Amino acid sequence: MELIPVYKGNNTPLNNIIVGNGLTKNKPITLPQETIKEEFKQNPFIEANTKEVSLSCLKNDCIIPVFAKDNERTISHQEFIEITQDCVNSVFPNHNVESPEIRVSHQIKGRTPEAIHKSAKELFDNEKTQYFERMAFIMRIPSIKESVNGNLISLVVGGVRAYNRENLYSKKSFEKFQVFIGFQNMVCCNLCISTDGFKSEMRVTNYTELKEKILDLIQSYQVENHLKSMQDLTNKYLTETQFAQLIGRAKLYQFLSKDEKLRIPPLQLNDGQISTIAKDFYQDERFCKNESGSINLWNLYNLFTSANKSSYIDTFLDRNVNAYDFSNSISKAINGNSYHWFLS
To answer: Which of 155, 127, 126 has the alpha carbon at shortest distance from 143?
Structure first.
């Protein structure tokens, strides 16, 4: 399977990545420094109520949840990460893969049996147990990179595991995972995920099935189409009036009936995130409106993905993909001068 290179006006490939049985790779591209905007402070790829943990913390300091009725163990967070690492290393053997950045939330606390009669403040560390209900991670492949609108973007692979989506009170059944391959904007650490690079529900029963499905997703990812669509966003603009119309409609969207929502492009961002986008249109130093008051759709897309960082882990990836699809629907409407409910 080949990830086909994208071509610019000079008909030279931006990148050439061969994926398949041979697993051969060309040299990573080197971008001229003047084409890349200054990098800002490295931020987490998701914020909300998450905190960063290490892989060793998940291995050594966390218990593994089980299915209550038969005591069968789940695939743990650390095993999910390590299986994904194996897949990435097998597909990209000639590229350096960075250590995973891991964010967790919703800590579930417990205690060992010998501490059953102690008060919480009397517990020693070795008498406490914990695991995290929700976990998200990414691993960057920095040598596979591109520039969009002067922003350096780097290939990333990652996933989400949320135990709240499992019925741990029953017998062992299919376990659910979310996996993606896409790009990360290194200026702001926003993730750029397309529909074909994302699997919203990977249902598996064992390690082998999980590995096979992750490999299938990585190898079927259409990098050419994704890069081209992101480049196209830089050539389309909304005026300040159109942006105001978009924000107003977005505020109204949540009050539409289900039937009405089915007839228009979906928007999954919540009301608070829409307000953040409106504020950042004027105040974000990286993606705000230009001097004429207009904004290109690449910057608008990044306002969406920045606002999405406040989402909980279990909704984060779905909303990120929705932001991409929504931005492309606006692009098509502008390009064809066609009707779009959010701009009407």
So the answer is: 155
